[in-house]
Amino acid sequence: MLGTGILKGMVETAKNFAGSYTDPANRLTTVEYPEQRIASKENARQFPFLVHDTEDPMKGLRCVACQICEKECPPQCIYIVKSKDKRADYKGQMQFYPATFDIDLSVCMSCQICVEVCPFESIKMDTEFELSNTDRFGGLLVNKHQLAKSNDHYRKIHPTEAGVSDAALAVEVAKAQAKAKADVEAKAKAAAEAKAKAEAAAAAGTAPAPAVPAGPKPSSPAASPAAAPAA
Amino acid sequence: MTFHDLAYDAGKTDFHRKAQSVGQGREGELLEVAMGPQHPSTHGVFRMDVVLDGETVVKLKPVFGYLHRNHEKIAENTSYLGSMPYTDRLDYFCSLTNNWAYALSVEKLAGLQVPERAEYIRLITAELTRVLNHTCLAGFLLQDMGALGTPLMYAFREREKILDLIESLTGARMMCNYMRFGGCRCDLPAGWLDAAKKLVAEYPRFLDEFDRLLSGNEILMARTQGVGKLSAELAINAGITGPMLRASGVDYDLRKVDNYGIYSRYPFRVPLGDHGDVYDRYMIRMLEMRESLKILEPALKDIPEGPVVDPKAKLRGFRPKPGEAYGRIETPKGELGFYLISDGSPNPYRYRVRPPSLINLTILEDMCLGQTIADAVITLGSVDIVLGEVDR
After folding, report:
1. ipTM of predicted assembly, 2 dp
2. Cα–Cα distance measured from residue A133 to residue A143, given in angstroms and rounded to the nearest whole number
3. B177 to chain A: nearest residue by CA?
4. How do the residues of chain B divide into helix, strand and coil, expressed in percent and rounded to 5?
5. Least confident of A77-91, B18-32, B53-67
6. Does A18 touch chain B (CB under 8 A)?
7. C-alpha separations of B31 from A124, A222, B16, B60, B367 in Å
8. CA B273 to CA B243: how far, in whole Å?
9. What would the pLDDT profile of A94-135 be if each residue is shown by its tens digit?
10. What is the pLDDT of residues B166-221, one digit of tens each?
11. Which residues of B302-314 are buried (b: 16+ CB within 10 A; e: fewer)?
12. Residue B181 per-residue DSSP state
């Protein structure tokens, strides 16, 4: 009969209308935004931030200004100036740090490629999405002071990812410590050997042999197998 | 006079001449209308220059390029990885299938293997994308027909549920940037498979609802049957692919023809149309969604554990050997292909996209001639274009 299809459709709309009161979880997917908010997903990504480990954000930045993210960024929105001096990083190695680190918010497309290519776990994605600004020139160029956020913040927004990242860093630190320890031991051993040789030479009454250099350079091959099991 | 003025003038005079020859001896009776680029029914910045005799279309010239972003040249000046987020922006409804097509052609070029789990994830996300795209298209098409609001709202409600899944997996709702050469960027988060299974189990409920709401509706049938007909012969000659081709009755689906990914493991049917009109194109999409759910259901159960990316693949310093490759997949809109030539440098020497939307759009005039202007609008709606992909 003509009109049956239309009537069927009307029944469907009526059902949906009633359903929006009786079954809002399935029928209504939106919320009243500024008052109500949907919790952001764990994988969500909006804009990068720089991770720091210490109280003073500028001293504890993990970034070593290697400029890989600057090169790999598809829309080229990162600008880095490397520092002239070096400072100790989280594992005690002397590293450069970014004198300037700017990201142009108006150009960034939130693709996360900077995060993927960073070998130092130092740039991560934030979930903050209310990034509007009244100053369209200075306000959209985000500098390193605004970008720096603590590792605790990272743990809070991406718990699973931060766990993996922390574990990777802990391995790095353990490796560095084991290497330092092995270096110290190797140094002591080399010094002891040189001393024993000199004593032997003195006992034999011959001319003293040229001193064995006790620097870390010749001792490091001997130290690396010792460091490997520790890591 | 600049080059652009000349080109515009040349186009205009040609257009005028043709329009005049159509209406020989009836000067003043024909009306030229520029529909777009701000016309809401044109799905973006697309213009149709139509010549009307009363309400009948006697000439139609599609004009595109307003959204040209230089995608191919940008890709030739950035690394292989750097183009991946740009492919999201081609067909912004189906970024996951765009990613897959690009990843597939780079994998062909570099000879990378995709682990089993990644193949499953790709299949699942691609089919979810197909469901998402067809759901939206059905809503938009009805919107074009004048069913303002209701069908589109219902469609977007369901789309929201799929977008939630995609967001929890990839971190973004539309610009996913998820596939990588030799696999996927990250593994599925905890609980994702259960959520996807739940969605797939509940989705037929919505499809039934949508069918009851629309598919048997007399007004919809009167409005769409016999409108915008496309013969199988013309469709093949024009290089049309995807649901549009299948609505004309040609059995050609790359998932069956090319057997890329792991599609050969799951039986599914390819729905075909009889008449090639707007109604067939609408119904093909409704049926394809059900077939996609049939693929999704077992795939979500079978997905194995394992790595999601080829260990040989590397993100930085990726330089494929000199050579060329063409990778193509069946996206919701048709055959999307990427043709790449490598000269051994970190950037592709040539990067060419074969966009299904653009090529499906070229046939628009043949489908619209002799019909009313309101029919031209729904014929365009049934082609399923996204201007991000047409203009690139």
Report:
1. 0.75
2. 14
3. A111
4. 50, 15, 35
5. B18-32
6. no
7. 57, 90, 11, 12, 20
8. 9
9. 888 888 888 998 889 988 889 988 888 889 888 888 888 888
10. 999 988 888 888 988 888 888 888 889 899 999 999 899 888 888 888 887 888 88
11. ebeeeebbbeebe
12. T
Task: Tell me whether the omega of the peptide bond preceding residue A216 falls within 30 degrees of 0, making it cis.
Answer: no
B78 contact residues in A (CB cutoff 8 A): 74
Which tokens is B376 given? 């031209």
B189/A42 CB distance under 8 A: yes
Q: Mutate which of A17, A38, A113, A120 to test chain B, going by most B C-beta atoms within 10 A?
A: A113
Yes or no, beta carbons of B216 and A4 under 8 Å apart: yes
How far apart (Å, rounded) are the C-alpha atoms in residues A79 and B69? 23
> How far apart, in whole angstroms, are the C-alpha atoms of residue B182 and residue B96?
15
- Chain B environment of A125 (Cβ under 8 Å): 171
Write phi, then psi, for B389 (nearest 5 degrees).
-90, -35
Closest CA to B245 of B206, B285, B209, B210: B285
Name which of B308, B294, B243 is nearest B265 in CA terms: B294
Residue with tokens 């720091």: A52
Poorest-confidence range of A135-139, A201-205, B297-301? A201-205
